[in-house]
Design brief:
Length: about 230
């Protein structure tokens, strides 16, 4: 149970930014088939599969799981819901997540710079390393006791990697974006590799997206779930 709850948070936190972004106007919806493989330092492993739906105007990120069992995971505003057999299993308060995911960034054309141009982070160094352009983004001075630098690398004008540092410069998280697809002009990664590092120990998560559809006119009910009546 602990491993599964940890996985839910890792999945919803994929491509999480520390500060808010401004909104774009280009695309509205995205859905995809997804699979997530998680491996913890203790050797625990899990596989989860299903479909994900996101409408940037409705601001709900909804996962419909098909494996290992049927469930619905919803992040809406500052709450995360887990639903099974039409019953609420868990309800977790958190800070707002939906604006900071790969879906929101891609739909608003902010993925290349990881959305950092629209935050209070500042680009302080840009360098070329082989076929990568690497930009170091530094948090505002008043936040440097809690936040470290973020290094963003771009390859062929697409986001390639993101490295998070703590205030002391120690790497605590890495993300790599691969196998890009272009759907109706929208560039979207088909594979995201995430490495979380705690006290030098690494845990891995690999997320894949297939059959990506952008701005579809059908399946309206899949993009919104009425959470007002959900009670534990």
């Amino acid at each position: 149970m602990i491993l599964r709850q940890r996985f839910i948070l890792l999945l919803l936190l994929t491509v999480l930014l520390p500060l808010s972004l401004c909104k774009g106007q280009q695309y509205s919806r995205i859905r995809a088939d997804f699979s997530v493989k998680v491996k913890t330092p203790s050797g625990g492993q899990s596989l989860t599969m299903g479909q994900v739906f996101y409408d940037r105007n409705l601001k709900q990120l909804i996962y419909y799981l098909s494996f290992p069992g049927k469930e619905i995971w919803i992040t809406s505003d500052t709450m995360v819901y887990q639903i099974r057999n039409e019953k609420l299993i868990s309800k977790t308060a958190t800070f707002s997540l939906t604006d900071f995911t790969v879906f929101h960034l891609a739909l608003n054309s902010h993925l290349q710079d990881f959305g950092l141009k629209n935050t209070t982070y500042k680009a302080e160094q840009v360098k070329r390393e082989n076929n990568l352009v690497i930009t170091t983004w530094r948090p505002p001075e008043k936040a440097r006791e809690k936040l470290g630098n973020i290094l963003v690398s771009v390859k062929n004008k697409q986001l390639f990697g993101v490295i998070f540092q703590d205030p002391k410069g120690i790497v605590i998280r890495k993300q790599f974006f691969e196998e890009y697809q272009v759907i109706n002009g929208l560039s979207f990664p088909g594979k995201i590799i995430e490495i979380n590092i705690t006290n030098g120990i690494e845990s891995y998560q690999v997320t894949t997206y297939k059959n990506v559809v952008v701005d579809e006119m059908e399946n309206d009910s899949k993009y919104f779930y009425n959470t007002s009546g959900l009670r534990l």
